[in-house]
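user: can you give me the structure for this one chain? tokens are fine.
assistant: on it. calling the predictor now.
[tool input]
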Amino acid sequence: MTNPLFQELDYRDTPIGGLSLRRRRELKLGVDVFEIKLGDEFLMSSLFTASEIALADLGLAGLTGPALNVVVGGLGLGYTAQAVLAHGNVASLIVVDALEAVIDWHRQGLVPLGHELSNDPRCRFVHGDFFKLAASATGFDPDAPGRQFDAVLVDIDHSPQALLDAGNAAFYGEAGLKRLTAHLKPGGVFGLWSNDLPDPGFTARLGRVFADARAEPVTFHNPLQDRPFTQTVYLANKRP
């Protein structure tokens, strides 16, 4: 008998652990919550999306071009991608995700924003390792090697210190960040989501690679704990 309060919509084995998509009824709030878990870790919840949306809005706020080209690293439940596409001057969006299941869930409409993103002609999903593509000369667009973008916005690891895979660590060092700049247009924006409070050390590291850098705290109300919670969006601009 199906439990109307909980349903595992899909489960996949991946190289970094078991990945599951689940829907549960949050009785306290009277809403359905979609969650992605990797093993016992929560990767994404539809209940907490403020900072994922802020990553897009803050990252694109200073870009005034009429036809922006954007990369989002990490699809998750699609809230950052949706917020990017809400900007009328975005001409194209590539969303890179290493987990094929997450892309499948969107294409199959198993997640709330799946059909919206899949049917937007500006949006394209790329199955690949964002960190390897960032370190490569060819970059993020398999159809246009070496293509540069107006913004690269990343929401994959929990923070620059709390990684889903230890192999991602090189990206957050100065050399890795320097390699990323090759994929940005002059004056382009790098944005990074973090579950933690601002880290002055990482902000300083960004400042040594980019023309300027800052950490923007994003505070929202946690309805389950009935208290405010703060995450961080890091922003940096490539030299013009």
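assistant: here you go. Helices lie at 50-60, 79-85, 100-107, 114-118, 130-135, 174-181, 200-209. The longest helix spans residues 50-60.
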